[in-house]
């Protein structure tokens, strides 16, 4: 029923004992509640096909916008975006659609906040989708081995628009920094001199192996945490990133490989912690 909020507000206004103004205030509050519920309901019941289509397009539009954060989109940025499309095995019409969306996102008139609000609406009640959307944006931003301050600023804005707190944002940063040291099949990272990398466009696998600290960042746990805490964090992350669950919630099939790679990273981090700390 679309008027439950107003009805409840009316009842509370009458019970307040302050007469007309109490009733008016109750109706206004009830109207706000009804409006919020209707927005959430429309997003929750969006068709799977519509949700997947919008999610796919928004991934590459926002990726293009983040690439432009440094001032201009370089040839390297385009190479890295195409590399990500290769990892997703996008070919034919899907590849063309992704490239078109990327170009749209880097245009000066691109309405970032409006697109993110639309994404948040169609992902209502599906935080796992929001999380993997951000993780893909972080992967793209980190792919040259360096997170530029301007990219970080735009990513923070994106996170805020999607309802991610500052603490959750910093946790995602830590997770990405730790995860970059884990090898995943088909996963490559741009490497070069210093932190910013060699801008000649050479790609190779990560130079050093992951450490216990990296593994703890991936799972979001402390080095001092016991086995129960580590296992609980591991199971939670594996559930949140389970490819089949994400597809059922609206993740485009083209991005299933990204979800699989993430579960491999989580599994590898868990195994490393167990080995290093002697957990059985």
UniProtKB/TrEMBL annotation:
Main localization, broad class: membrane
InterPro entries in UniProt: DjlA, DjlA_DnaK_co-chaperone, DjlA_N, DnaJ_domain, J_dom_sf, TerB-like
Residue spans, topological domain Periplasmic: 1-6
Sample GO molecular function, one term: protein-folding chaperone binding
Transmembrane domains' residue ranges: 7-29
Membrane-related topology note: Single-pass type III membrane protein
Side Cytoplasmic, residues: 32-280
Gene3D superfamilies: DnaJ domain, TerB-like
Membrane listed as a keyword: yes
Keyword Chaperone assigned: yes
Subcellular location: Cell inner membrane
Sequence ranges assigned to domain J in this UniProt record: 214-280
Short name of any one Pfam family annotated for the protein: DnaJ
Keywords noted in UniProt: Cell inner membrane, Cell membrane, Chaperone, Membrane, Transmembrane, Transmembrane helix
The organism's place on the tree of life at top rank: Bacteria
Domain notes: The transmembrane domain is a dimerization domain.
Subunit structure of this chain's protein: Homodimer.
Reported function: Regulatory DnaK co-chaperone. Direct interaction between DnaK and DjlA is needed for the induction of the wcaABCDE operon, involved in the synthesis of a colanic acid polysaccharide capsule, possibly through activation of the RcsB/RcsC phosphotransfer signaling pathway. The colanic acid capsule may help the bacterium survive conditions outside the host.
NCBIfam families, sorted: PRK09430.1
HAMAP family, per the entry: DjlA (MF_01153)
Protein name from the UniProt record: Co-chaperone protein DjlA
Organism, scientific name: Candidatus Regiella insecticola
Name of the encoding gene: djlA
């Amino acid at each position: 029923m679309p008027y439950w909020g107003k009805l409840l507000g009316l009842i509370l206004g009458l019970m307040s004992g302050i007469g007309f103004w109490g009733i008016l205030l109750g109706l206004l509050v009830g109207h706000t509640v009804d409006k919020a519920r209707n927005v959430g309901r429309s997003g929750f019941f969006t068709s799977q096909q519509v949700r997947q289509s919008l999610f796919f397009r928004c991934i590459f539009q926002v990726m293009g916008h983040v690439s432009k954060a440094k001032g201009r989109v370089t040839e390297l940025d385009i190479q890295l975006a195409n590399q990500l499309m290769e990892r997703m095995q996008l070919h034919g019409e899907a590849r063309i659609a992704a490239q078109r969306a990327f170009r749209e996102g880097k245009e000066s008139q691109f309405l970032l906040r409006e697109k993110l609000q639309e994404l948040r609406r169609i992902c209502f009640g599906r935080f796992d989708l929001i999380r993997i959307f951000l993780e893909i944006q972080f992967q793209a931003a980190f792919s040259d081995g360096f997170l530029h301050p301007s990219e970080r600023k735009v990513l923070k804005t994106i996170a805020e628009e999607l309802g991610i707190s500052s603490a959750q944002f910093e946790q995602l940063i830590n997770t990405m920094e730790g995860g970059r040291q884990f090898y995943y099949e088909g996963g490559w990272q741009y490497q070069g001199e210093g932190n910013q990398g060699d801008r000649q466009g050479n790609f190779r696998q990560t130079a050093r192996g992951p450490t216990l600290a990296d593994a703890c960042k991936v799972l979001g746990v402390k080095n001092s945490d016991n086995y129960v805490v580590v296992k609980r964090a591991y199971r939670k992350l594996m559930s949140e990133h389970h490819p089949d669950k994400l597809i059922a919630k609206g993740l485009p099939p083209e991005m299933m490989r990204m979800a699989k790679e993430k579960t491999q990273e989580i599994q590898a981090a868990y195994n490393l912690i167990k080995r290093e700390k002697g957990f059985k």
